[in-house]
Amino acid sequence: MTSEVLSHCRHELMQAIWMLLLDDDFMHAYEFGLVIECLDGIFRRVFPRLFTYAADYPEKTLLASIKFLAQCPCPRCLIPKIQIGGLGSKADRRWRENRVREDGHTIWTTIRQVREWLYVKGTNITSVFVKWMLVPESLVPTVNAFSTRFARFGFNFYSMFVPDLLHEFELGVWKAAFTHLIRILYAYGHDTITTLNKRYRQVPTFGRGTIRKFSGNASGMKKLAGRDFEDLLQCAIPVFDRLLPEPFNALILDLLFELATWHGLAKLRLHTDTTLLFLDTSTTRLGKILRRFASETKEAFDTRDLPSEEAARGRRKARKAPQGQPQSTENSAKQHPQGRLKHRTFNLQTYKLHALGDYVSAIKQFGTTDNFSTMLGELEHRRVKRFYPRVSKSRFTSGIAKQQQRERILFRMAERIPVDKSRKRKSMALGSREVMKADAANMPSLRFEDSEQLPYTDPRAHYHISSGVRHYLRLSQWLGKNESDPAFVGFLPRLKDHILARLLKHNYDGDESPFSSAERSRLTFINDRIYRHKVIRINYTTYDLRRDQDSLNSRTHADIMVLSHEEDNDSEPNGHPYWYARIIGVFHALVHYRDLTTNSSSYDPVQVDFAWVRWFGRDLSHRSGWKVKRLHRLGFIPSEDPGAFGFIDPKNIIRGIHLVPAFASGHTSEYLPPLVLPQLWLEAGFSRERSYN
To answer: pLDDT band at 684, cuts 50/70/90?
Structure first.
């Protein structure tokens, strides 16, 4: 059986299945409705409708009855394949508006004629006459089930094939761009691949699975899903910075910025006319930078197949070779003389690139992309992929089913048997407790092994820390042990100024209100203690009016943002809406305050929660922002600066942030002497500082 006949059978099978699904009962409900008793007890007539069909490109071609990767590859319009590279141009927009696919009598007549040639007259499916009839619109000789069932209702079934962000961008355009960037680094050499993998490995994690830890071989792209390519894109700008010389470094950074901008706008879960205009203009800019990237890198770099691509090609050839007949080494030598790999360029003529221009219209018609993305369904693939390495590859279907059954049994058993979590934590921490006990008692934060109860957080509260008093520091002893540390200079006076300002309800403007020694003396800490905490949870409302939560700690997720108290005007031309800091420790204290102005003699303790932070400062010498297409750069304020360390009210924390090291800037120790909180920085992995993006 030839490949053309096999492809035709696939199309016929798909449409036959849909004819069974869209049976007479469904069509009766589609036309006359279906009476259903709702939860409120009222009977209502419901009319089922088809609005969108999200799928990857091979499935779309089967459903739309068009040829795979043919002259007109798009299931929504008739743009020629050679015109796809003009993404975002005026000509590209005209193609989308004026050459929309329409289901009608012209197509029905063509399909009917070709099927008569095939099934009545016995014409070969590869005949010139068949191609002459079908090639102009890349049709196939298959009667479409959607057309058969819905044509009489005036429904153009081509319109329901919406673009899919997962397959067309994350696993499509961005994966192709990332792959070609890796080819360029291989062509350039100079240990850039090793540097790239090392940088990706050093990128910190963020959130509850938002940014995961990268593998040590990110350039290999092995076993990566769409979410992994999304993470690669979000962290790509500082990772690729200065791996190539100018002007290619600037070109690649511009490309990565536009890709990240377009992806962020397309994935918004709340859109306005303004954001759709931004997405439209971003599509235009992205098309321009992709064309520039393809042309300039083609001339400058001899890009070849990656080792993984060459190995995959060899496996495909081995599968196609007849059984028992090894591939001729002579033919292989002719295809790749002198061991040269196949030359590769960045391909602009792909349907996935063309689909990027349809997102604005699709969002206007069907809503945000999370309404019609295949991402939710594809997430279930993780379960199968998790079981696959454990089973026999010859009978993996039954093996995966058995693994799922065993997992359900173990889960039910675990629900019946109570687990002594305290014993488990105790055994895990026993080995290192004695070694680090003395150092841990002097640290402003708790270790991972330290136990602290923190129940579920009330969603109405902005922040939540534990109320436990088990882990405490005696202020006088603790400050005495660290008196030579520059981070502790003025610690107690500044802490008292912070607490007094909050007790007296002073408005916070970013600077601590100075108080006199007499005023500070009226504030006392009960038992001379402050209490350390392991985690602080921050509840906040996202831009799309959803509630979310960040879990912050000083070990791994310590970077935060607060509202700034500066304005972008003539007096402060470099104003920025946010300030950024790193949490050193989270505390609460029980204090007494004797207010002479009100003759208050109450000795009831007042609990004050606060975070000790080290402030970041923006690098004003670094050009950043939308116009120059560069990220803002942050760095620690020098430790000798009076504002390097400070205290903030947890209520002022907006949420956590993800800071990626500016790898190209290297390391420095000028902002923090070695004595400053050595145990904290060594545990967190920051033995040497970097500038940050």
So the answer is: very low
Grouping H, G, I as helix, E, B as strand and the rest as coil, residue 583 is strand
Helices (H), 388-540: 396-416, 421-440, 475-481, 491-503, 517-521
CB of 400 closer than 8 Å to CB of 387: yes
Residue 192: its H or E element: helix 192-202
Q: Beta strands 463-464 and 645-648: pairing type?
A: unpaired
Mean pLDDT of 458-482: 91
Query: Which amino acid is residue 595, in one-letter code?
Result: D
pLDDT in tens, 27-61: 999 999 999 999 999 999 999 999 999 999 999 99
Q: Could you state, in order of their start, the residue ranges of all structural domains in the chain?
A: 3-160, 165-317+341-375, 381-416, 440-690
Q: Is 542 helix (H, G, I), strand (E, B) or coil?
A: coil
Q: What is the Cα–Cα distance from 240 to 192, expressed in whole angstroms?
A: 9
SS3 content of the chain, % helix, strand, coil (to 5): 50, 15, 40
pLDDT band of residue 555 (cuts 50, 70, 90) is confident
Residue that the structure tokens 């940014």 belong to: 211
What backbone phi and psi angles, to 5 degrees, belong to 628?
Answer: -95, -5
The predicted structure's pLDDT at residue 427: 45
Local confidence band at 224 (pLDDT 50, 70, 90 cut-offs): confident
Q: Which residues contact 669 (CB under 8 A, 6 or more apart)?
A: 688, 689
With beta carbons less than 8 A apart as the criterion, state whether 358 and 96 touch.
yes
HSE-CB of 99 using CA atoms within 13 angstroms: 17
Which contiguous run of DSSP H or E holds residue 636? strand 634-636
578-593 and 523-525 as β-strands: parallel, antiparallel, unpaired? Answer: antiparallel
Q: Determine the pLDDT at residue 648.
A: 94
